Amino acid sequence: MNQAVGLMQVVNDVAALAEAAAERVVARLAAPSDRPAVCLSGGGTPERLYRLLGTERFRARIPWQQVHWFWGDERFVPFDDARSNAGMAMKSLLAHVPVLPKNVHRIPTDTASPHESARLYEAELRHLYGADDLDPRRPLFSVVLMGLGGDGHTASLFPGNPLDETGRWVIGVDRPGLEPFVPRVSLMLPALASTREMLFLVGGTSKRGVLKRVLAGEDLPAAHAHADGELLWLVDRDAAPERENGA
Ligand code: 6PG
Predict the structure, then answer these.
(1) Nearest C-alpha to atom 10 of ligand 1 is from which residue?
(2) Residue 166 domain-assigned?
(3) Residue 8: strand pairing partners
């Protein structure tokens, strides 16, 4: 098993993926913390999880007034653009639960460039963290959600992009390697790693090939992801390698 991949849990389907992820998020947010914080991912996979967290079954189990909400990456588009990761999370969850608006930390996309947005977001993260260097014993996040793109990208760190520019927590990405082909803003791997738990959500047959490449240790951004705490890949049967899904 590739060191970076860590543990893998195979679940039946995308519904079970959302269920398993929701239970992990609830458990992490229940742990004592002076600032519980979730770093959300974008794209299509997590939307089912976000909707589930707002249902009666999970709603009462999350300390909404205490939790801070961040994003691991964002498309450099207006908030009301259908491609906005923050817009998707707002519509599917945050607008329907009692979060404190001051605790919702969106990546700004109304700046002059994704690089300016990255500088601003990095400053906000550093201010909230209260130190310039990340300490593995004091993680930035309680849980970081991650996706896997068909080219092996994660967050908005694409093959060929720098993954860990020494000292930088957030970067602008002018040319993403996969649609939507709009500039991006992305946390870098060391900032994403500063978490009690990193949770990859991977579902569907379209991800089987790229997941196999990650597991084989191919030099892909997602294969370099790591976490100061636990790293768990939640994968459904359609995306899991043959040996894992009993096929
Ligand atoms: C983004 C995401 C990205 C996503 C993967 C998988 O902004 O696009 O953060 O990293 O997680 O591309 O996306 P799907 O879940 O849509 O396959």
Answers:
(1) 155
(2) yes
(3) 233
Answer yes or no: is 207 within a domain. Answer: no
Residue 82: which CATH number?
Answer: 3.40.50.1360
Render pLDDT for 146-196 as a digit per residue (tens, 0 to 9). Answer: 999 999 999 999 999 888 888 999 999 999 999 999 999 999 999 999 999
Calculate how far, in angstroms, residue 202's C-alpha sits from the geometric centre of ligand 1: 10
CA-206 nearest atom, ligand 1: 17
Q: State which residues form the domain around 65.
A: 3-202+220-240
CB within 8 A of 16, min separation 6: which ones? Answer: 236
Q: Is residue 211 part of a domain?
A: no
Could you identify the atom of ligand 1 that is nearest to the CA of residue 41?
A: 9
**What residue spans of the chain are helical by DSSP H?**
14-30, 47-53, 56-59, 85-92, 114-129, 189-193, 208-215
Reported pTM: 0.96
Q: Note whether residue 175 is domain-resident.
A: yes
Q: Is 147 in the pocket of ligand 1 (CB under 6 A)?
A: yes
Q: Please count the structural domains in the chain.
A: 1
